[in-house]
Amino acid sequence: MSSFFEKRILALHYNGVYISNFDLQKVASAIGIELDLAQREKMLKSLLKKAKEEGKSEILLQELIELLQRRKKNYLELAYLYPASKEILLNYVNKTDATIEWLKDSII
Q1: Is residue 81 within 8 Å of 66, Cβ to Cβ?
Q2: Distance (Å, rounded) from C-alpha 97 to C-alpha 17?
Q3: Fewer CB within 10 A of the terminal residue: the chain, N end or C end?
Q4: Domain map of the chain by residue range?
């Protein structure tokens, strides 16, 4: 797996969402993969490898998309509740939307 994929998923700068190691563990659990807590980069590499080995790459992509969609919903709710933060939050929403579309076209 390319390091660009990993950076795109883990970097707030690219995707608009901070994905914690706990988030990665929950995603893994949702697709039936056991994943120990560790550094996020290590966890993502392990998750991608295990998903590929077990033929669960497509479902992994779907779980990542769903995680991003939940965070996007949270951002939109916060933007509504706190109008002064709307500009910043909508920037994150735009990055998240772009990452969701990118993931839909990704092959892992």
Answers
A1: no
A2: 10
A3: N
A4: 3-104
55, 20 contact by CB (below 8 A)? no
The gap between the terminal CA atoms of the chain, to the nearest Å, is 7
Measured in degrees and rounded to the nearest 5, phi and psi for residue 16 equal 80, 0
Which amino acid makes up residue 49?
K
pLDDT for 106: 83
Give pLDDT, residue 66.
Answer: 97
Among residues 12, 5, 10, the alpha carbon closest in space to that of 92 is found at 12
Q: pLDDT means per 10 residues in the chain (108 residues)? A: 81 93 97 96 96 96 97 97 96 96 86
